[in-house]
Design goal:
By secondary structure, the protein is an all-alpha fold. It is built from 14 helices and 2 strands; from the N terminus they run αββααααααααααααα. It has a two-stranded antiparallel sheet. A hairpin with a 6-residue loop joins strand 1 and strand 2. Helix 2 crosses helix 4, helix 4 packs across helix 7 and helix 7 packs antiparallel against helix 8. The protein is elongated, with a radius of gyration of 27 Å. The protein starts with 17 loop residues before the first helix and ends with a helix.
Length: 353
């Protein structure tokens, strides 16, 4: 009796099998989602390895997190150069206007950013309207600090922007009443409040400039989807309404300083490029001209500077309300691929028409 295994006929690799197609569809979905969806917040990924002694552990940072941090530090250094070149002069003029009361802060005696205060909550709601990754970049550029996670972001806002260590929450009741009397007599906001509003205005100006330059890869939205304002002008109006004196026109002071808000977040900026992972859903999602154009822009931007700065909002129709808009969006994707990718799509044009 022979114990040798039976020789089986080799089954050829069939690319048309449903299992192979599903695997390739899943792989392409993951790959396209990494192109479309940026990393919202970069944090260190640490691996704890226990040694023979349980009390001592060594922390090693993975190569992936090191690569992310390296890209982030390069981006931050570039943003600091842009701030020093384009924003520093405007920031100096705005700071001078606030210091000499050309741009007056609300002289209300109750204006402070202490804990459990209405003004503090209004300020935090204003900050939370911005995309976290953009606001992190602005904080690191303005204050020259490193923010590695969400908890450090919160503490940095308290320490550097709001300056909670200098708040009146630690003062006695007599000190607070004395401070209110000084505010009522002089009608001048405190140095801490001036500094907070001043830095917040500078952050707004810098973030608009950085967004227009598309400093961050994949160009994430500047404002959150549920934000009450979707443009720089609206954000300045809200800031002026809550914290600037009624006799001061903040927009006019900014124009005199050399800055005029122009950015507005559109529905195309908030378009959800994320692909679903359902069966046979990938091909349906890729029939969308907006996704095709965005995919072509990302793939071709590494070899062409014009494609990297290509403004999709001037060409694409969003939201898509009819078949004509859908065909126009697909035409833009084909035009990018033919012009800059040197892809021959003549047959597809004939078939589509």
């Amino acid at each position: 009796m022979s114990f040798q295994p039976a020789i089986r006929a080799r089954i050829p690799f069939n690319l048309s099998s449903s299992n192979t197609v599903d695997k390739q569809t899943h792989a392409y979905t993951l790959w396209l989602n990494t192109l479309f969806t940026p990393v919202e917040f970069i944090s260190n990924i640490t691996l704890n390895q226990s040694v023979s002694n349980e009390e001592t552990t060594t922390t090693k940072t993975s190569f992936k997190s090191l690569a992310k941090l390296n890209r982030w530090y390069t981006l931050r250094d570039h943003a600091r150069e842009i701030f020093a070149r384009d924003i520093q002069n405007i920031a100096t003029k705005i700071s001078a206007d606030i210091d000499i009361n050309y741009c007056r802060i609300n002289p209300n005696s109750d204006l402070n950013f202490s804990a459990r205060n209405v003004n503090r909550q209004a300020l935090l709601n204003f900050i939370s309207s911005y995309n976290r990754i953009w606001f992190r970049l602005a904080m690191e550029v303005l204050f020259s600090i490193n923010i590695e996670n969400y908890q450090q972001m919160k503490s940095s806002i308290d320490q550097y922007l709001i300056q909670s260590n200098n708040n009146t929450s630690s003062l006695t009741l007599n000190d607070i009443n004395l401070k209110k009397t000084i505010f009522l007599n002089n009608k001048i906001a405190s140095v801490q409040i001036r500094s907070t509003i001043k830095n917040l205005i500078i952050i707004i100006i810098f973030l608009e400039h950085a967004k227009l330059l598309r400093l961050i890869d994949n160009d994430p939205c500047l404002y959150n989807y549920d934000s009450k304002f979707k443009s720089t002008k609206e954000s300045i109006d809200i800031l002026s309404r809550d914290f600037i004196s009624s006799d001061t026109n903040l927009l006019r002071r900014l124009k005199l300083a050399g800055y005029e808000p122009i950015y507005r977040q559109t529905s195309l900026d908030e378009f959800n490029y994320l692909l679903t992972n359902n069966e046979n859903k990938l091909f349906e999602d890729l029939k969308d001209g907006i996704r095709l154009t965005r995919c072509a822009q990302i793939l071709l931007s590494s070899t062409n500077e014009y494609v990297a700065r290509y403004d999709l909002s001037t060409k694409l129709k969003c939201p898509v309300v009819n078949l004509v808009h859908k065909l126009l969006n697909i035409d833009q994707a084909f035009e990018l691929l033919q012009t800059y990718g040197h892809v021959n799509l003549t047959g597809m044009y004939v078939q589509r028409k």
